[in-house]
UniProtKB/TrEMBL annotation:
Cross-referenced InterPro entries: DUF4442
Protein name (record): DUF4442 domain-containing protein
A Pfam family that the UniProt record links to this protein: DUF4442
Amino acid sequence: MRKWLMRRFGKARLMRWFLTLYPPYLGAGVRVRHISDDFRDIRVSMGLGRHNRNYVGTQFGGSLYSMVDPFFMLMLMENLGPRYIVWDKAADIDFISPGKGPVFARFSIDDALLDDVRRQTANGDKYLPQLQVDIHDGAGTLVARVGKTLYVRLKPQARQA
């Protein structure tokens, strides 16, 4: 059944549906708007509603962070393949201005990043790439900047080969 779904709809499309229906995202109003077929471009949005509004009526910081949490890890996992371990290691968020309405984030990775990761991990060492995503409101105002540190390493079987 899983293989049929993958062939019929494509992995990126199924992932988008799954993440949009994922209960924490559904409750917070997070919507995955786009995942490119090669998992190198992802766009996410989050409305402002009663489940993600803080005491002063703006976007709750925890919801802003959860909106962007898994995507760089997923993108690297999909692009590097099953020979690699990819984990989130650390994160920081800098709140710039209040999110008073819907907010948006766009993630992208390129060949240069993937080549760098492969080069840094080729001899079996871990690599801790630092990536950044900005969260903007509908007018383009920067609401928050999130830094992510990932842990990437070849799996033990791949290191021995």
